Amino acid sequence: MQQDKKRGIILMNLGSPDSTQVKDVRKYLRQFLMDERVIDIPFLSRALLINCIIVPFRAPKSAHAYQTIWTDEGSPLIVLTNQLQAALQPHFNMPVEVAMRYGNPTPEAAYESLLKQVPGLEEVILFPLYPHYAMSSYETAVRYMEEVHRKKGYKFKLTTIPPFYNDEQYIHALAESIKPYTEQPFDKIIFSYHGVPERHIYKGDITGKHCLKVADCCHVPSAAHPFCYRHQTFTTTELVAKELGLPAEKVEQTFQSRLGRDPWLQPYTAARLEQLPKEGVKRLLVVCPAFISDCLETLEEIAIGGKAIFLNAGGESYETIPCLNISPLWVNAVVKLIEKEEEIVKAV
Ligand SMILES: C=CC1=C(C)c2cc3[nH]c(cc4nc(cc5[nH]c(cc1n2)c(C)c5CCC(=O)O)C(CCC(=O)O)=C4C)c(C)c3C=C
Ligand SMILES: [Fe+2]
Ligand SMILES: [Fe+2]
């Protein structure tokens, strides 16, 4: 890529605790769940709920879950994001850094590292590693980076890569990662996305009258779609299924990782894993496209917990398809997405 400006890139992911010790998991959960875009209730109620109920009960359980997936190098999410950074660096003549929304490395550290490496830094390209727009993932990552940028008084420009849920190269990389699994005999493939509360979908609807209100809302054109997580996840599933030529009856979309009692997007993955064997589905594939890097929610919740649910309910075979992680087609897609954004900026 031509370097006519002093630039740097930041890849941003969600983040993990510093270790599997309960104290570190507690600290991480507190920072994560105190985010008003994740638990969107008034500050005092949120602080009470998180500090008195959710964190005390959840931290030991989450710590145990992290222990089942932790590697010698640390959290899979962090290790894989660092590996993506290393795979991307040779494609750019500007530094590529990593920042996490929660925990380490912080956005401040990533910005400061770029400033050290590029004297007179003019622009930072922010690449949130989320294919879909959700208030609790993409939006909070971008707003937080903007807030730090403003508070620090940085002079360089911040350019953000938009959600890429329907990008041709991303869809191709995802489809190719699934293909070897669908070439073997299977009864069904589940596209399991991280869930969000329905309330977040209503809140994100800029028209105020479309999402979850109009029949088949996600397939009816609307100005709400650029901010609608549900619409964007359906689009990803449908484009991948089309590219792979999967018959409709073999494809299903579900939502995982529900927290609390409010209604979240449905159907819930765990409930479907329990029901599917009774409907005659014995050989199941599961892919989790909301996650770019394998993490607690794919390696523990889906690959370990989900498998146990399905097999105990009478399923016979269950395979979790890895996330894109550092697949060469995905690395190529990231390079193209960044180049595309540069062309748009230049043309304006
Ligand atoms: C209200 C709670 C949560 C919302 C909303 C939410 C949305 C959301 N999350 C991701 C991506 C990830 N979440 C991960 C872990 C995780 N998520 C929640 C809660 C909400 N997420 C919790 C409490 C946790 C921590 C672990 C646990 O106790 O279960 C992870 C994995 C992190 C890791 O270290 O591996 C990811 C990634 C998205 C994309 C999203 C909205 C679309
Ligand atoms: Fe989450
Ligand atoms: Fe919608």
UniProtKB/TrEMBL annotation:
GO terms for molecular function: ferrochelatase activity; metal ion binding. This is Ferrochelatase. Catalyzes the ferrous insertion into protoporphyrin IX. It is an enzyme of class 4 (lyase). Keywords: Cytoplasm, Heme biosynthesis, Iron, Lyase, Metal-binding, Porphyrin biosynthesis. It is found in: Cytoplasm. It comes from Ilyomonas limi. InterPro entries: Ferrochelatase, Ferrochelatase_C, Ferrochelatase_N. Its EC number is 4.98.1.1. GO terms for cellular component: cytoplasm. The gene is hemH.
